[in-house]
Design brief:
heterodimer, A: 49% helix, B: alpha/beta, seven-stranded mixed beta sheet, 7 strands, 47% helix
Chain lengths: 780, 232
Amino acid sequence: MRPQDIIDAEDPEQLLLDILNRLHQNGPVEQEDLETLAYLKIFQSEMFHVQQPKLMYLLGLFYKTERPSDVRSLAYSIFSDAIQLETNQRFTPVQASIRNKILENRYFSFSAPTSAGKSFLFREMIKDQVGDIVIVVPSRALIAEYILAVRDLVVDRKDILVLQFIENVNRNKTSRRIFIVTPERASEILKYPGVFNVSLFLYDEAQISEEKVRGVSFDALVRRVERVFPNAKKVFAHPFVLNPEAQFKKHDITANVGYMAYCHNSVGKIFLAYNSTGGYFEYFSPFIQQAHLKKNKKRIDTDIPAEIIKSGGSILIYISKSSIYDKTFKSKFEHYISLCEILTNAEAIDIIEEVKNIIGALGKQSNMVELMRFGVVIHHGSIPLSVRLLIERFTNKGFAKICFATSTLAQGVNMPFDLVWVDNHNFSGSDENKTLGLKNLIGRAGRNTNVINQFDFGYVVVNNEKKFVERFNGPVTLSEISKIDEIIIDASDELAEFIDAIRNDTIDAEYNLPETKLERLKSDFANSIILAALNVLFNSNKIITCDQYRLLSKADQDLLKNSLRIIFEIYLGRDLLLGEQTVLTTSISILLWQIQGKSFRELLGLRFSYLTKRTERREIYRRFIGKKISSEQYRRELLDLKIRYTPVAMQLPNSDAQFALRRFKKDESVMDLNYDLLVYDSYDYVDKVISFSLSDIYISAFGQFYSGTGDGRALAMVNYFRFGTNDAKEILLLKYGFSFEDIEILYDYVHSISEFEIVFKGTISELEGTSVMSLIERYL
Amino acid sequence: MAVIYHHKVTIPELPENATAEMHLLCVEVEDVHKHASDLISELNDTSWISQLNPIGKMSYERTAHRTISALVEMFSHIESHITEEFGEYMVSMSATNSMKEKLSHSIFPLSELWKEKKLGNHGFDFHTESISKQIAFGEAKYNRRDNSYTDAAIQVLEFIKDGKDYGDAVHLTNFASPGAILNLQNKRRGFAVAFSLHSNDHVKILNNALNSALILELSSQCHELYIIGVRS
């Protein structure tokens, strides 16, 4: 319906009753009905209020109902009570149905909207499952979210080991294991067929199967898991896809199969078009034809986002990463940012301080931190994960009034807002992925509160309603053919070798790489290159520091860079392009810093000094202090000092990277370095380049070299790449799930550690009450 | 349920201006629990939740039995919106069943009975079709203490005034025979006044109803009229 027609409805009560009748029969599957309910709640509040208790029952939101006061609610309360009786939880019918089908079938694939509460359901099911569980999620952000929630759930079960990677540790005390991993890391499980008793593989956000590169890894994992753990239950979960059964067709799984596309919503949405010329909003409905026409919209005089901010709500603004990088988002949304007052809450300030500490922002101009003081946060994939988690905590605690975010946030992270503003209409991937991205994003609009008898709704603001409606109404289906089988092998395709190996079952279990690549990496030629690299990297069997690296002769530096490049090229089977080479070279310094155990903050400090020419700056300063130059001259000289060249970090290989773009402008003064940009770029080097693109390659190269030669330096390199350290005790502590930050605190309290158990010294009680203690307790 | 009394009003007994053939019926509800159970099944079997199979049959039935027993218990002791709704449902059900049993009416689907309706002025509670192909528009009233035929009759008269009977025609084409629809178009249709009856002397109550001014008025506005007391 047109918003105008709902607002001016002659018989709004009948409109509401008709919806209640449809809800009874079909459930809350029509988003348009939930939209109408939201309008009626605003414009016919008295009448709506009367029906709200019954509406909660009809929507199946049993956790926010009170004792039934009419016969229909009474009848529905039977469903509610029976679900409670059977599951011991106040699940919604959709949650209970998913649970039931998971129990009934060996294979179950389903889709459900963002607000369906599947995370809550999974966590509860994990608690009751017998045997080991592997949960596969696409991002480390999701792993972090899951880990926290699952650890909370099993806090009183010390025999359940919860880890964010696959390791067989704490064996003496463990009866069950829960691993939460990315598809790329999940293949480790294949090494333990007789060791782990995996009863459930849960593939969450399984639409990753549609991505070009990661889809291949994901589908390969699914197939290999099927061969090694044929009896384990497999569950595939997706948001909003129409054909979840495609996951089975992809892999020809036919027996014991169940699937379901749930499209039940629980939160209403009101759509607003923003008229940027006039600076006003209009109601529109994406569910009607020609939604964008003036006659179908209704202008409103209220500035709804501003009202939400003023009344303590929160809004999410989806913007492009480039507008964050060039800061243009600030001027565009200045009006709303200016409504946010400085925060005084102690907990909020603590979180901000923690962020500042991680990124070493003391004395530096961090736009991100400055905005946070006003409850304005920035969220995207190049923000260090630990900072992102703090930002999410900050937001979930209600401190953030505005969140500027890119697609990273929409990818499954659980953060609801009162209003979502789609300022950027660009989403990545195929048309279907774009629709999925958009739906996922606007799925964040409207919090599903636990308030009894309250129908919740949120707002969605769009700048281009025509484009929005087209995308919004696009279908989202999964391909029935796996990316493994779909791609036509082309010799130039980077993936070809990998796909070929999956098809021929020649992926090496130890290194998770094609055997052909591994063969090349252990050729005599490769070995001579690896040896050359080791000879430069190590000095008397000790790895060189970054300072030592800088002091190396140019010939030695080039030898190291070239060796590492050639190893990569051998792996790849082609020469690296200039752009790829530049990124690889830059990552080597960062890698050396990392190997020395530098924290991210220290790494940033070092990069900052290097890029802003600290030595030259000091020299200028010395002359100024010694009164050899005037303050004017001092400032001018600093302005004339330009930021050093550094290439924008990117995933490798990248066959389009003929050249690498500059991270900072050529004529930008060291005085003007955008510190946040340095943070984002450095994290991209650590995450996208070293961890995601390089680790596996060098681990296999050095690992095989060690196997062939027994050269301990090569083993050390494997450990540096895999764990970031070569210290045996640190490596074991990492395998137990502790972070470097935790290890720094507890290292000396460890009496002994092995894969069987950790024994702490009696002095460990000194840590009582600290956050590290809560992590240690499960191993005591 | 047992139809304990049926009397077709004879010509001498008919009110003066009556155009309707009139029937008086009294139904005794023997098993309230069954009515409650039928009602709950009717509601839940048509609900979206049943289609999702969220729970095992055993858990559902155990809980349903408990809830139905609580409803029956509540019905005998408490005056509330729930008991009133249930009472009205029982009156409707019993009335339609008695019309089917004694007068061979066909009953239109009960789910229609349970559509969400406006309070006060919602529309007829039930519909049947008689063997003479006339649709009977029924109104049921339940009251814990009173013989509520007056309320029911007032309601029917109001509906007639508002044209609700013809308003329902489009909807009724789904259930009624073409002949009945044709009759309706020619203003040939009946009404049923069903009410909770609280007296052992049901004949007296039904006769009181027959002679009440409102029923007299109704008898001249239709071709069939059914006065049905339901005792529980």
